[in-house]
Amino acid sequence: MTQSNTAHKATGRRFRHATMRDLPHMQQIYAHARALMAANGNPTQWGTEFPRESVIIDDIANQRTMLLVDTHNGRERILAQFALCPGKDPTYEHIDGAWLDNDTYVTIHRIASSGLVRHAARDCITWALKHYGNVRADTHPNNKAMQHVLETAGFARCGLIQLLDRPTDTTRIAYQRHEW
Q1: Cβ 68 vs Cβ 113: under 8 Å
Q2: Is 116 in contact with 71 (CB distance < 8 Å)?
Q3: b/e burial code for range 123-149 (CB count within 10 A of at least 16 → b)
Q4: Contact 122, 153 (CB under 8 A)
Q5: Residue of 85, 158, 65, 82 lying closest to 123 (CA atoms)
Q6: How much is the pLDDT for 6?
Q7: Is 18 left (phi over 0), alpha (psi -120 to 50) or beta?
Q8: Could you name the domain of life of the organism this protein comes from (predicted)?
């Protein structure tokens, strides 16, 4: 490899907690994700306003937001982001279906890829499973891409849940994977 090729090489994907300095870039990634969802037949999951800035800030302040980053041309770049929420999720109290178990779990919410690399969302889910073992998630019925990512990662489709924080378009497909 020549020296000029070496300078353009990306190094070491890794995870870290988001900080308030990351907020502007995170908002750009969420805007990219909303546009991509709309272009792929899913314009209503996040619409034009989700996730709300106040939620993103709260996630950062409470160290729930994880970033998948690497270094490219000597600079860190965010490849993907997600909220990792421990404890019982009130949205998951009622399900039309059944969870795999009632054990302690974490929930992945608000996952979004920057579009810079392939498989970034899958890498986030794999990391969560490795560190927590029992993981739940949900996605919009029109979000075929996320359904594919979850199902190829071994998640079971458990049923339907209703979001508590939205006035319309609230049905989501609920998933769980438990590393026994």
Answers
A1: no
A2: no
A3: bbbebbbeebebbbbbbbebbebbbeb
A4: yes
A5: 82
A6: 39
A7: beta
A8: Bacteria
Residues 6+ apart with CB under 8 A from 54: none
Whether pLDDT at 56 is above 50: yes
Tallying the residues shown for the chain, one arrives at 180
Q: How many CA atoms lie within 13 A of 170 on its CB side?
A: 11
> 3-state secondary structure string, the chain?
CCHHHHHCCEEEEEEEECCHHHHHHHHHHHHHHHHHHHHCCCCCCCCCCCCCHHHHHHHHHCCCEEEEEEEECCEEEEEEEEEEEECCCHHHCCCEECCCCCCCCEEEEEEEECCCCCCHHHHHHHHHHHHHCEEEEEECCCCHHHHHHHHHCCCEEEEEEECCCCCCCCEEEEEEEECC
Q: What's this model's pTM, rounded to 2 decimal places?
A: 0.89
pLDDT in tens, 93-147: 999 999 999 999 999 999 999 999 999 999 999 999 999 989 999 999 999 999 9
Residue 49, strand partner residues: none
The torsion angles phi and psi of 60, rounded to 5 degrees, stand at: -65, -50
- Residues 14, 70: contact at Cβ < 8 Å? yes
Q: Find the radius of gyration of the CA atoms of the chain.
A: 17
